[in-house]
């Protein structure tokens, strides 16, 4: 457990804050995430399948024609449609108004064709 200076400990006592000790599984998982981030180069594309347990992902999947494949591009902030493949940023970024507008415009254009 981390040791605190006298002033830090005094502040923790005054605020009635009890420091917690990290779980070993949490520390090792966090270490693995940091290690993966430092090993990947900035221009590497990381594509993953969308998490269809989330409502937004289900809505997007329903709006897509069967011929279009959807992938999450974790390093991108843009919504793109290339040769029957929809690339979007992470679902958290798709919550932003501009990203949603771009996505729904692309999906609308698919249904007009």
Number of helices: 5
Beta-strand proportion:
5-15%
Major beta sheet, strand line-up? 1-2-4-3
Count of DSSP E strands?
Answer: 4
N-to-C SSE series?
Answer: HHEHEEEHH
Give the helix proportion (percent range).
Answer: 40-55%
Q: What structural category do the secondary elements indicate?
A: alpha+beta
Mean pLDDT: 78
Shape summary: elongated
What does this structure look like?
By secondary structure, the chain is an alpha+beta fold. Helix content is 48%, strand content 12%. The protein is built from 5 helices and 4 strands, in the order H-H-E-H-E-E-E-H-H. It has helices at residues 6-14, 24-39, 55-63, 91-94, 97-112, and strands at residues 47-48, 69-73, 80-82, 85-88. The protein has a 4-stranded mixed β-sheet, with no helix packed on it. Strand 3 and strand 4 (85-88) form a beta hairpin. The longest helix is centred in the first third of the chain and has 16 residues, at 24-39. The mean pLDDT is 78.
Strand and helix layout:
Layout (H helix, E strand, L loop, with lengths): L5 H9 L9 H16 L7 E2 L6 H9 L5 E5 L6 E3 L2 E4 L2 H4 L2 H16 L1
Parallel strand pairs: 2-4
Antiparallel strand pairs: 1-2, 3-4
Summarize the structure.
With 113 residues, the chain is of the alpha+beta class.
Attribute tags:
113 residues, alpha+beta, four-stranded mixed sheet, 5 helices, 4 strands, elongated
